[in-house]
Write a structure and sequence with these properties.
The complex is a heterodimer of chains A (112) and B (116). With 112 residues, chain A is an all-beta fold. Chain A is built from no helices and eleven strands. Chain B has strands spanning 4-5, 10-14, 19-21, 24-25, 32-39, 46-52, 60-61, 64-69, 74-79, 88-96, 105-106, 110-115. By secondary structure, chain B is an all-beta fold.
């Protein structure tokens, strides 16, 4: 069974479009995250949710809007996509007070 | 300021040899956690090992061990008996426990190539 899953795995779209990435975890964790990995492989936190409540919102353009309908799901909606949004987006989850974060397989977003 | 520094962009090691990947960190939080992740060419992020700031002993997981030197603020990953499948990017990361979001700060990574 996949612990953290993301859909889609690949997303190719044109500038100006709106798209969503979905994430689900079946680990019973209470904290979920979105990370962005840029073309130089650098990983940076975007958002953190604990028990469906937004905890961290790094300096991310407000075109990015996370939504957590329940503890097992954290979706990422992106409006008015720009070329610079091209990256790999990773969802992750953890127990807030425990150790490791488990990552999803990533979604490679390409904006043309 | 960069909280996690990995000074080795690329490393080579021969199969069956041991290799050390360097990581230094910067924090004033007394409670923190240090992590290493592996990212093979297929792209997934694989958790390898964790060290808590209050742990007295260095963490070990199979062929992976973490050389934790708190005073030096270093958390080097040691891979023993390297295998060809160890070729990948390796990321060091830190979670500061005063940060209620529990997010990880990542280093820029080290690309490891294991040669036959």
């Amino acid at each position: 069974d996949t612990a953290v899953s993301q859909t889609p795995k690949y997303l190719v779209t044109q500038m100006g479009n709106d798209k969503s990435i979905k994430c689900e975890q079946n680990l019973g964790h209470d904290t979920m995250y979105w990370y962005k990995q840029d073309s130089k492989k650098f990983l940076k936190i975007m958002f953190s949710y604990n028990n469906k409540e937004l905890i961290i919102n790094e300096t991310v353009p407000n075109r990015f809007s996370p939504k957590s309908p329940d503890k097992a799901h954290l979706n990422l909606h992106i409006n008015s996509l720009e070329l610079g949004d091209s990256a790999v987006y990773f969802c992750a989850s953890s127990q807030a007070t425990a150790g490791e974060q488990y990552f999803g397989p990533g979604t490679r977003l390409t904006v043309t | 300021a960069q909280k996690i520094t990995q000074t080795q962009p690329g490393m080579f090691v021969q199969e069956k040899e041991a290799v050390t990947l360097d990581c230094t960190y910067d924090t004033s939080d007394p409670s923190y956690g240090l992590f290493w992740y592996k990212q093979p060419s297929s792209g997934e992020m694989i958790f390898l090992i964790y060290q808590g700031s209050y742990d007295q002993q260095n963490a070990t997981e199979g062929r992976y061990s973490l050389n934790f030197q708190k005073a030096r603020k270093s958390a080097n990953l040691v891979i023993s008996a390297s295998q060809l499948g160890d070729s990948a990017m390796y990321f060091c990361a830190m979670r500061e426990n005063s940060n209620s979001g529990y997010a990880l700060n990542f280093g820029k990574g080290t690309s490891l190539l294991v040669t036959p």
